[in-house]
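Folding problem:
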Amino acid sequence: MTKIKIHLADDHQVLIDGLTNLLQTVSNFEIVGSSLNGVTVYDDVIQDQADILVLDISMPQKDGIEVLKEFNQKGLPCKVIILSSYDDLKIIKEVMKLGAKGYLTKKCAGENMIEAIEAVYEGQEYFSDAVREKIFSMFSQNNPKLNKNVYIENPILSPREIEIVTLICLEYSGKEISEKLFISVNTVETHRKNIMKKLNIKNTIGLVKYALKNNLINE
């Protein structure tokens, strides 16, 4: 069984210890190291040969954003999930542009961290529910066609897929969706194909009919 090698970077040892205890309950996770300040993160990750870095924004000497900038200059050595006390959209957008693949707030770390690591390791982007809803509401709040209750439970589609369907029906392009949700165009296209397959429909008209029928958008 292939182990997912994880490095934890946070300035609070108690948080590192808590995450370590949580992640060690997963058989294919291996905690290979940790960092208490941003200065050593790059070298630590290289030495540990980590697959995933869980990185705090507020790090001493060099913060998480500066660490990501260093990664970009030297070459991304692993996939990065941001774990932060902040859910400010400006920060989220900046770190995603710098290559982070996931963003969790510390409030929901316990319930989402395992899922986030598995998703990011498999090449997906991952946002906690609160962060995703904030991103979505940023550009949808003034759109009269959007049902503000878009996060209703759906027996077929995931919350992310519901967002994608809604935006396609509101005539956003794949590029626009990728920019709005901070995910890649390829990820948008993968979601679109999966949605079509799940719903057994062949075109955008079918998506619009589904969205109207399920109250995702208003007529």
In short: The beta strands are 4-9, 29-35, 52-56, 79-84, 102-105, 126-127. The chain has a mean pLDDT of 85.
